[in-house]
């Protein structure tokens, strides 16, 4: 009976319904049984993160809860937006009147919490505690430790943990491949990857992402094609890395093939994936296809808009870039500092000096963003392209930050364009 009532809790259960189920369990005295109480708390906590506070209130009514619901709370909070609260329940285990002790599940969840928080000191403390309780040889904890130390960018600790595993299984090998790829040790990652008797999609995706992050774009694409030959499905996250590799190489044909793969395999068009497609097409020179992808996207964020605007500016479509910026503001999307780099470049390629100046001033006055060196460089380029070299030089001399090579370089290019030798020879050497 009690289990039937508890089974009514699912991911769509709202607080009002939870209270009704809770009342039914109380009326029948089921929650006097700590095991049934634990099952109810677990169901509430794990089915819907929005109900975590309510499950916490229920648990507070029990003086001596069992380890199970406390572990469930640790697990639930580790996946929530407030993972640090996991440690409240760990400390409750340690202070338990019924002499509870943390088990392998406790530490498995805590290790992953530390990884999510990127908390090095806490991670070391948890590692020390699990050694004290004798769980250092638990395979799930070992894989979790490798993942945690990778998030902490401590590759030597990943190697140490992995080296202590007498017979690494698929999970630990995959964790180590992912760790090395994340920490940019793609050589060791590939060596381990190549000797794995079986490779799951996580390992493949980790290697592709690792190559892309290290600028080894050709290797990333080669591995992607090998992955297809072996019939392994790539996920949306790694497809972003594939598109990044295509962009870096300027490989439009490869990018088209990757786009076809996305459509053929019906990969979910996430905002990040769509933005990567826009970036790839724009930087490979097919701005019309980039904009086709942009308009087809149902969901966009500021990075999507900025990527499209940057692509238009890069391909000489300044007016379209500025029109898109106006539409972006109408849609209520707040621009960021990169957005204004695209806007200023859009002004520059069509010679809209006054409009560019207005946009530059709005960066701080309207949007509260401190202009960065790249914004100043764009303004110098704007003045220079328009032939207003004296204004460009005056702008550089009055910058509140030290002029960088990009600003001087933009002015030098303008001097060459307009054959102003007198000014060009006087510019600092760093240009």
Question: How does this model look, in words?
Answer:
The chain has a domain at 1-77. The chain is built from 26 helices and no strands. It has helices at 2-6, 15-27, 34-47, 52-60, 67-78, 86-94, 104-117, 120-132, 139-151, 155-163, 170-182, 186-195, 201-213, 217-229, 236-249, 252-264, 271-283, 287-296, 302-314, 318-330, 337-350, 353-365, 373-385, 389-397, 405-417, 421-426. Helix 21 (337-350) runs parallel beside helix 23. The protein is elongated, with a radius of gyration of 28 Å. The termini are far apart. The model has no long low-confidence stretch (mean pLDDT 91).
Which bin fits the share of residues in helices? over 70%
Average pLDDT confidence is 91
Low-confidence stretches: none
The oligomeric status of these chains comes to single chain
- How large is the share of residues in beta strands? under 5%
Helix count, DSSP H or I runs of 4 or more residues:
26
Shape, per Cα inertia axes: elongated
Query: In whole angstroms, how far apart are the ends?
Result: 80 Å
Largest sheet: none
| Total strand segments | 0
PPR repeats: 200-234, 270-300, 301-335
Keywords: Repeat
Protein name: Pentatricopeptide repeat-containing protein
GO biological process, one term: RNA modification
């Amino acid at each position: 009976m009690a289990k039937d009532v508890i089974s009514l809790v699912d991911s769509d259960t709202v607080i009002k319904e939870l209270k009704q189920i809770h009342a039914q369990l109380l009326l029948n005295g089921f929650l006097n049984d700590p095991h049934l109480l634990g099952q109810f708390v677990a169901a509430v906590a794990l089915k819907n993160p929005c109900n975590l506070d309510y499950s916490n209130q229920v648990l507070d009514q029990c003086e001596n809860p069992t380890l199970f619901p406390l572990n469930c709370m640790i697990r639930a909070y580790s996946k929530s937006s407030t993972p640090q609260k996991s440690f409240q329940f760990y400390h409750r285990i340690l202070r338990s009147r019924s002499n509870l002790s943390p088990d392998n599940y406790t530490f498995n969840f805590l290790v992953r919490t530390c990884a999510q928080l990127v908390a090095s000191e806490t991670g070391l403390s948890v590692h020390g505690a699990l050694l004290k309780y004798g769980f250092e040889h638990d395979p799930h904890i070992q894989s979790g430790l490798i993942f945690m130390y990778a998030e902490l960018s401590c590759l030597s600790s990943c190697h140490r943990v992995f080296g202590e595993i007498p017979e690494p299984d698929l999970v630990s090998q995959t964790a180590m491949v992912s760790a090395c790829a994340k920490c940019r040790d793609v050589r060791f990652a590939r060596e381990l990857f190549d000797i794995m008797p079986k490779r799951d999609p996580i390992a493949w995706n980790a290697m592709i992402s690792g190559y892309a992050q290290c600028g080894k774009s050709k290797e990333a694409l080669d591995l992607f094609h090998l992955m297809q030959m072996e019939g392994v499905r790539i996920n949306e996250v790694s497809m972003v890395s594939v598109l990044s590799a295509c962009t870096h190489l300027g490989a439009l044909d490869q990018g088209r093939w990757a786009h076809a793969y996305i459509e053929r395999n019906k990969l979910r068009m996430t905002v990040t994936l769509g933005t990567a497609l826009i970036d790839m097409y724009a930087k490979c020179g097919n701005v019309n296809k980039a904009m086709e992808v942009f308009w087809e996207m149902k969901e966009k964020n500021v990075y999507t808009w900025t990527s499209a605007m940057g692509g238009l500016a890069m391909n000489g479509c300044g007016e379209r870039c500025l029109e898109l910026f106006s539409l972006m503001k109408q849609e209520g999307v707040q621009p960021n500092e990169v957005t204004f780099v695209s806007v200023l470049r859009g002004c520059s390629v069509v010679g809209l000096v006054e409009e560019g100046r207005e946009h530059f001033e709005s960066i701080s006055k309207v949007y509260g963003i401190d202009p960065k060196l790249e914004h100043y460089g764009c303004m110098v380029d704007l003045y220079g392209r328009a032939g207003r070299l004296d204004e460009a030089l005056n702008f550089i001399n009055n910058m509140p930050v030290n002029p960088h090579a990009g600003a001087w370089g933009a002015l030098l290019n303008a001097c060459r364009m307009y054959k102003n030798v007198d000014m060009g020879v006087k510019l600092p050497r760093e240009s």
